Amino acid sequence: MSGRHQALTECSQDEPSPWVYDIIREAAREPRELHPVLEELKHLIESIPRLSMLFRSMLQRPQDVDNNIMPKLRNYQHMLQVLNFIIARPPPWNVNVIIKKLLDTWGAFLQSPESATKLNSDPDGWFNDVALTNLTTAGNIGDTSYTFNELYICNSAAPHYGFQSWDAFFTRRFRDHTRPIASPDDDSIITSPCEAAPAHTQTDLNPQDTFWIKKQTYSVTDMLGPYAPKFIGGTVYQGLLRVYNYHRWHAPISGKILTTITFPGTYFSTPGALHPNLPAEVSGRVATFSGYNTAMGTRSLILIQADNPALGAVAFLAVGMAEVSTCEITIKEGDYVKKGDEIGMFHYGGSTFCIFFEKGIDVREFPDVGSETVAVRAQLAVVVTS
Question: pTM score, two decimals?
């Protein structure tokens, strides 16, 4: 059996036709209105002649797989419809494993020197005028007006600004003075572990809940697994990162690391797959169902025993969303961290985080949802002692 036929066979163990084949057929039978992101891709293909030519050529090439085993993608319009179906349903777990392998391969490329070729000022480069403005605007929170070179550890005179790969650029570090630690000697001040916009705060957390619906509930057991009991009835705050944000994590408190663990999750999964009657404009939005993603996405848990007894144990949960396949923890169980120390990072794409407090811990002054991005290591909340 060839490698390709073997991979196709492994995609489905119980059904006569693999998951993706059924989607290819369904997309041909019942085309739907494209998700806005796929409309953008369609416009890009149709507006650039060379790109259009390459897509047409790719999809017109003879395939070396029997059509009775694997149906063809007829053209790029059909391909877009297939993607439209895929992003609105969860894959079976065995398919998810293969998706992870593909994303891991892509991730390895993004860490290679060859991936730095778009780190330039060309029209499609990450340092063209528009992109550079977006990057510096995202990095200047409040009244600051740093340049990119002043914000981040880099060298604008060097090729690719000194970044050795695209991932090195994505996980770039701030220059220390641009992100001071709020009240470093005051253990009642909790700092933001990530550079992120406020998404949601919830108290009196349930052990399990309907996290897949839009009302933004959190299901602690699904999110934290065996570490959930400590936080049932407690409080969670969630922040949402954008692609232009800083993607490293920093300790929100000082204390000892009790646990570090990464839970595998699904990729490109949205509640639209579970609720086909959701309006098209929301069924595929990752941010709209950020509570869903905290239970279904790949996520890393870091549990910290706070120096401040009024805080008890605090859980930081980093969640990879959509295609993000890697949440990297850079500390280990037993380590001691000071507030503001680096503890890990996201790779490759947009993401979110949650921070949990135990029942009975009086934590106040979280930022309002809809307010501006909270800088990493800036004040996030305050614990109140009676």
Answer: 0.73
